[in-house]
Specification:
By secondary structure, the chain is mainly beta. It contains 1 helix and 34 strands. The chain has 2 domains: 167 residues, Methylamine Dehydrogenase, Chain H (7 Propeller), CATH 2.130.10.10; 150 residues, Methylamine Dehydrogenase, Chain H. It has a 4-stranded antiparallel sheet with strand order 3-30-29-28, with no helix packed on it. Strands 4-5-6-7 form a 4-stranded antiparallel sheet, with no helix packed on it. A hairpin with a 3-residue loop joins strand 13 and strand 14. Keywords: Repeat, WD repeat.
Length: 403
């Protein structure tokens, strides 16, 4: 059991519970002794959480290492060392299609409402449009950057750096739905901003002094970038004319350890960064100021944290130690590791999770997909029930403890 620093350990034992009983002493009090006050009774409070996890599916294809995962619209997309993106249908997790090109490895995936964006080893992004409700079909509609756009801007005398593809592998993709923007981060230390309506590059951000490993975008449009320079940088869009509408606002330190993964809670209140030392640092956003402040670190992995994802009050991490850990964020902000998923024989490179009830469960759990460099895709179901603060009742009777 692991919790965030500054928290207490919770008990997850399954020992049978015996409620306290009112009993009399075996030695009678002396005659005429003043009566002793009766014991005070207070309801017995349980501080116990129950969790369980199981692997519900495991798939191995001849695609080599699994490098990327995305979940959307009832489908799971997996990118691998081959040039094939496999599509799996929920909830049965059966393969229902493939997206093929001649570009090589698929390093990153991002899915919007009806489009799939995939970053390949040739430093380009392929775009597919999804159609069909029953059996989905995907049609490739574009490859970016577009050669014609680059040539047109070069002839017009515009900044040709805006149209060039990344000079290194693309490590991460993120979508800003409200502003209709696609972000791509690369090991060439830059972030490119693409307008999704016409797939044009509208900005190139010289973001870090070292390769960029991950990016996330909040609902408020704020961009977060993580790098091997052991920092996380925060960028805001100014909505002004010019070549650099994104401005750097603050740098968050990750304690001298390269940051390999980023994740943000749905409400944007907590930002997580997974590092090569096995720690997951997190920052809390102030409700009034909106500024991020360091909140602590989660420790449990023995090797580098390679991927993170967050859904509801769960955080899922994948590591080079071949395990994935599931953390739950309590109402008081404390974090507890409720499950350690073991079964892979190689580092876990990508992870995705959802709580849409496809397994017929209630909202006290989540379904997790883990992709590993061993070439195996595993699907897990994790359930968690917290009874903290509830009175123990059996057969309609309430038990009390002596005070």
């Amino acid at each position: 059991m692991f919790r965030s620093i500054s928290t207490k350990e919770a008990s997850f034992s399954e020992l049978p519970f015996s409620p306290p009983r009112l009993s009399c002493s075996s030695i009678s009090p002396p005659f005429n002794a003043p009566p002793s006050p009766g014991p005070s009774l207070t309801p017995l409070m349980l501080e116990k959480s129950q969790s369980s996890h199981k692997c519900i599916s495991s798939m191995l294809k001849k695609d080599g290492q699994i490098l990327s995962i995305a979940v959307a619209n009832g489908l799971v997309y997996t990118g691998s060392q081959s040039n094939c993106i496999r599509i799996w249908k929920l909830p049965e997790f059966s393969e229902c299609g493939q997206l093929k090109t001649k570009a090589g490895m698929v390093y990153a995936l991002a899915v919007s409402s009806d489009r799939v964006y995939a970053a390949y080893a040739d430093c380009k992004i392929r775009v597919w449009r999804r159609s069909g409700d029953g059996v989905p079909t995907h049609i490739r509609v574009a490859t970016i950057p577009k050669i014609r756009s680059y040539v047109r801007n070069y002839i017009a005398g515009k900044d040709k750096k805006m149209m060039l593809k990344h000079l290194g592998p693309i490590s991460s993709l993120a979508i800003n739905v409200s502003d209709d923007l696609l972000y791509s981060a690369s090991l060439d230390k830059t972030v490119k901003v693409w307008r999704m309506s016409d797939l044009k590059c509208i900005e190139t951000v010289q973001a870090h002094s070292a390769p960029i490993n991950a990016i996330v975008v909040g609902d408020d449009g704020v961009l977060y970038t993580a790098s091997d320079d052991a920092t996380v940088k925060v960028w805001r869009r100014n909505f002004c004319t010019g070549d650099q509408p994104h401005s750097h606002t603050i740098t968050l330190s990750a304690k001298c350890s390269p940051v390999k993964a980023l994740a943000m809670t749905t409400d944007g209140g907590v930002l997580y960064g997974g590092c090569t030392d096995g720690y997951i640092h997190f920052w809390l956003k102030g409700w009034f100021s909106g500024q991020l402040q360091y909140g602590g670190a989660l420790h449990g992995h023995t090797h580098a944290v390679m991927c993170l994802t967050s859904v509801s009050h769960y955080l899922v991490s994948g590591s080079a130690d071949s395990t994935s850990r599931v953390w739950v964020r309590e109402q008081d902000g404390q974090h507890t590791c409720i499950a350690v998923l073991r079964g892979h024989r190689g580092p876990i490179r990508c992870v995705a999770t959802f709580t849409d009830g496809v397994s017929g469960e209630s909202e006290d759990g989540c379904t997790i997909c883990t992709g590993s460099l061993d070439g195996v895709l595993k699907v897990w179901r994790v359930t968690h029930t917290s009874n903290a603060g509830k009175n123990l009742q059996r057969n309609g009777c309430e038990y009390f403890e002596l005070q």
